[in-house]
Description:
By secondary structure, chain A is α/β, with parallel strands linked by helices.
Amino acid sequence: MHTRRHFLKTAVSAPWLLSLAPVVPELLRRSAVQAAVASVAGNRALVVIQLSGGNDGLNTVVPFEDDGYARSRSTLRLPARDLHKIGGSLGLHPRMSGLARLFAEGHLAILQGVGCPGLSRDHEVALRTWQTGTALPAGADTGWLGRATDALWERVKPATPGVFVGSIPQPFGIHAATAVVPSLRSVPDAFPRNDLTLIPAAPAGRPSQTIESPTGVSSPFLHHVQSSLVMARTHASRLANELAPASGTRSYPAGGLGNDLRTVAQLIRAEMGIGIYYTELGGGGIGGFDNHANQLGNHCALLQQLSDSVTAFVDDLAADRLLDQVMLLTFSEFGRTVTENGRRGTDHGLAGPMFLAGGRVRGGVHGAHPSLTDLEGDALKHHTDFRAVYATVLEDWLGLASAGILGGNFERLSNLLGPPAGSA
Amino acid sequence: MRRPASPTVQPRPPAGAALEAVDPAWAWAPYEPSVERPWTIALASHLFRRAGFGANGAELDRALSQGPRGTIDRLLDPLAAATATDPALAEHESAAARSGDAQALSAWWIRRLFETRDPLGERLTLFWHQHFAIGAAATANLALYHQHLQRLRSGARGRFSALLESLLDDPAMYIALHGEHNRRANPNLDFARPWIEDFTTGPGVAGDPDIRDLARALTGWFVYGGRLRLISREQDADPKTIFGQSGSFSREELARLLANQPATADHLARKLFRWFVAEGTPPPLALLSPLADLLRHGRTINEVTGKILCSNLFFSDHALHQKVKSPVELLVGLAKALETTPSTLTLAKDAAALGQRLDEPPTLAGWPGGAAWINTITVSTRLRCCRSLIEGTDGYTQGADPGQVARNHGRIRQDEAARFWLALMLGDDRSPNSQAGAQEPGANFPTDPAAGRQFLDVLVARPQFQLA
């Protein structure tokens, strides 16, 4: 944008044009920048990955010594020798070497047997149930993270409280009533062309002016807009540095989730005060995890993408000592049937595992693997309600009152968060 | 329109007083231009931002010479409204609706906002859309949704009870509110509740028995094949009691009953105030009650709107810049000023990225508006979209030629053109030369389109450009 910069210089050198800009008072500019930084210090980020289609938890966290596993999975059974052993007769899928390392380092928690009473086996209904955090998803007009975003908005405005990073239509889980939730595919979507250099700033040597509209009317909205412009300008310059070739690129796997988590890390480093990042793996619609036939190869590719992307993300943040500020959580609308369906695939099930990663996450396996004999319609039963996980994250991580967001009190999991890891 | 009575109180600027301290008699008396409060570009562009979707240079010039009363009368004149839109445009809308293409329907809707000769009618249609805020996806039938929007449009200026009656006969409302199979044995309270708590009295007025009996009164109306049909055996014919009145209640009677509740007038007056006057601190009831009284006396929405637009309060500091432009207002308003014909598919996509998909209000409460539109990311995306419109990039194929537009309106010299654009974009009618630094403009924007676009790039980055 050489011409634009050139124009700016000429514009600023023309006193009459300059004088028609009621400039941002220096005081406001400083306070907005401080607010941008402070909101991050007081705020933590939650990164949610939606695994669309219903992940086969049984082939993700594998109870390889359980007789039922070998019996039920005649073609899909993963050989015990290929699994990454994590103790307690459990092994992670062979393609998840990255997550196995995070587990060993204590940054990964595995929550077993998560679901809820009466979970539907219909994709749309089950996904809505997880996304809305309510047993009656048809009546809910916002997602649980949308409501959390609305609550954060009151705390951080004009900072952006939550974003969706990805290329599918914005999932309902972050659908909010008040806050505008941007959908980003990459950083330039948020701050295109670095045009914020055009935002009027107080030129040196000129007295500050009061905030007023051209007619001399004061408006609380004018103050809000000015603060957001000044803050955006600060964020944009940080992101410009972030995107500069000289800043050194950390390696992420090519493709969807890797790109998305790289973008999330860039936004986190820019200290924008964003509290909630929603991402997705598996594609929109029914979702790539829905493998009714020939599941093995497809599932391998998806889990590898999940594992490599999350590992790259965690390593990236840890290198900048930011891991203590971030918690990552995965969910899928349901697990799959224990028994193969005769087409080398599995059908819709119920409970499944969730992954949590981050510097403050108490690593390890939380809860027993659900029984492979005490089943409900060939599906694993849950012993942990996902809304208890939500309540824990909302209260203990984001500092939000969960009862209003979840429409009821759910007992929090007491041992999920630990002291700071001190970042590797 | 019904002319407001002559003012008994002298117009006076409220001098920074809080809304609580404003005298209602002064507030709703008609504004008369005076030496202290002259009719200016700032006030004329304020009127077009609130009663329409902004103005182009010709409209602003005409308003300045015509004065506030004549300009407002033209906006309110329902005769002009009858022939407001090109029939070809309506046909495009219907075709998009029939083919189930929601994106195209939104794009044609936005096209209508540009081209209409009845901007206030479209503005009121959007008000009702924000009030009865159902989405296209929940309606699951775009043709029905389109008919729903037409009901809002044709009833927008009339009596509220008539609009309510029309919507109680609207299959789209029944589907979107999950009331399309409301059975006698199991009256659907979740379907009935919004008709009271969202659409009429507002929350906190009705008790559970009122809502239950409204649900009973609406049993039997099923949606089959896109039409509402009465299934007699599913209709609860026993008497009901709603808001203290008993009867068996036809839908016409229900519309009248709900519309005539005193709280309904208060609720609507509050929303009209927020829509037309200010989005900040809610006004005290005493300030609203003259508007609510008009509604209670069966005045049309057009009459109440006229009362608001003509008023001292509307042209006071309590209203100027006390709203934030919605994404659609921002982009349509800019394109109107630029006198370009942008792709409204692109514009609809940009408005959606900024948080406003016209066919999908976020919840039944509509778009929250005000400060919620602006966060650090949407504010920079707003600048990007405005610049794309100005430069004709990112899906907008036609860039603006600001110098040519100014010339078309008789502004030839550089300082004339600069003042023209300041007035059009920011409602700022101060002479650049009267401000600090009496220097001739150095920019060559009147003759060089690129320089003209760069000049506008600077203007859209001004914070007050985001305010309505």
